[in-house]
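Lab notebook, bench 4. Still working through the backlog of constructs that have no structural model yet. Next entry is a single chain of 409 residues. Request: give me the structure tokens for it.
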Amino acid sequence: MTTTLEEIRSAADRLRGQIVRTPLVRAGRLSEQLGCELFLKLENLQHTGSFKDRGAYIRLTNLSKDEAKRGVIAMSAGNHAQGVAYHAQRLGIPATIVMPEFAPFSKVERTRAFGARILQTGDTLDASAEAAYQIAEEENLTFVHPFDDTDVIAGQGTVGLEILEDCPDVEAIVVPIGGGGLMSGVATVAKDANPSVQMIGVESELFPSMSDSIKGVKTMTGGQSLADGIAVKVPGKLTRAIIDKLVDDIAIVAESDIESAIQRLAEEQKLIAEGAGAAGVAALLANPERFAGRKVVAVICGGNIDLKLLSSILTRGLIRDGRMVRLRIGIIDRPGVLARIASLIGKTGSNIIEVYHQRLFYDVPAKQAEVDVVLETRNSEHVGEVVSSLKADGFPTRILSDISAQGTQ
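Model written out:
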């Protein structure tokens, strides 16, 4: 059994007015940097912050009256949970959501805000799924699968219809893959419209479950991934068959590439994406030559990222780029020295953010001290200028941050 193009078109009709018809925008700065014409499909602008709104609505509206009255149950780390809870609330359907213990607080609370009963159990998605199936049987609830369901795939496939409406001459579509529901739907639409469109899936190097399944290998290590939305250990059976038939390749991206993609989307395009949502851009950043000179669409499938994590990623990006640095400066402990250091730093055009002056616990002579300063700088070359200026004035200085300018120490 598979999802047909007719079912996807029918789903699009039913979704009209029920979800956000998300825009396809040209990523001007990233296009210039990557050497391709890149467009971003902004599913992070859906009401619940991800494409999951689509499939959840189609599945829930296909319930019988008896099923709707008894209620539904779903398992999810966050995005499918919110999609099901949101539409269940709108449709008056009781909803229970089983979420793993590691689900981000922000996603748990947003799901709870939609009126769903939340049960957090299991240290993996698989363990949460087992619990959800058991509760479904005990309480006679209808299980709403996050990806391995023809209704869900049909709903997600409407993303593909919209992409082709807005960009009919697209040459490659890059789609993150977790369980494979989104890619299955989009590929069904795209390959029917133009078999030469290249469909590229993207998985995290920690959870390449679909790629492993298709290739018949076992490379998955698991672990804490930035892309928790696609951290799936067991892909769907329905989705695997579709992806094996229609998808040209699955790119595997490193966690560092995903982190860089989140930062670049925020800085270059002013877009907030979660790890899974940024995975498509991560694939382009990791291998720009593959897409050079082509018209490419990357699906930003979600934007539900914890703000503390986002803050950390952006700060780490500034450090990697040499725009924020921590220096340790050796000084003679006497009046006026801190003022001298501040003056030298100011003359270089850098800005002092924080100062840590420690006399007691560093392994230095009693009349000496070390000062740690956190600076805002232009780039790694600028960091080198600051270090050189301090050293030239007799202040031993070393860089504590992990940036490309460390060779200037």
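Notes after review: Residues 78 and 107 are 5 Å apart (CA to CA). The chain has a mean pLDDT of 93. Flag for follow-up if needed.
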